[in-house]
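Troubleshooting: if your tokenizer reports a length mismatch, compare your output against this known-good record of 288 residues.
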Amino acid sequence: MRKYPGFSQTGWKCGSGFNLIELMVSMGILALLLLILASVVVHTLSIFQGFQHSKQTRQSGIQGLDMMAKDLQSALFPTKLSDQSSYQMIQNPSFLGDDYSNRDSLFWQGMGFQDDQVADVVEFGYFIQWIVSSNRSKAVLRRMMIASDDKENYLLYRLPRQWLSEEMLTQLYPGDLHKSDRGVIAENVIALWITLYGREGEGGQELSEISAPFDSRAAVLMPCLARISLVTVDDAAAAKITPATMKIIRNLYNRESVDLFVKSLPREIRSGTAVFTTEVALETQGRH
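Known-good structure output:
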């Protein structure tokens, strides 16, 4: 009978395939490769999600800054500074307390639109509010906008010296976002930095910083320029802000500049910060 290599009367030789040990080793190597591949995919997705979150934080910071700049460009100032019933701009008003000055807050009247898109004088305001829970503290940028069709809260003409109060802000913008998220422009904004400048000297050639707090009804120098900075944190840094960390951050609001403020932040927070700055020209010429 003719014989063929690798063949016996009982069938193919066992040595021509994988034995059990070789098969188990191959499966182990395949499992290890799949585990490494899965780790790479998870890490890549984590980086991508972090990038997306950072992008969203950047977009919300820029949008908040743009909205504030647009509202400020319409700011109205009194034609006579002695007129205590006229328009008013207030930076860091003492009667609101420290909860609304993180680091700065600004309130004023300007041209805006009611819900029916009718142009009118609107009460504006921007401030940082800390939302505190048992183990987390979150900072949001809020925009106050009260049009004349809000009969209860629009007090500029009825009570010109009481158009802004802590009671009204607490009612409209409570420290619990589950009750109301009205006016929330951006989340994870830990500081609002506002510096006002006015013109002095012959011909108004010298630009001088106006110290806060500022009240246009009591000021000698009217602002012609506002420099605004928002300090934001990404989601990773925001998740590390506890009530104790919030206190540390708020204690740093006394730094002389936004750059020094950021440099003084705890390392785990500082690594996730971004600063957005713009300048807004204010039309105050001719006021006396």
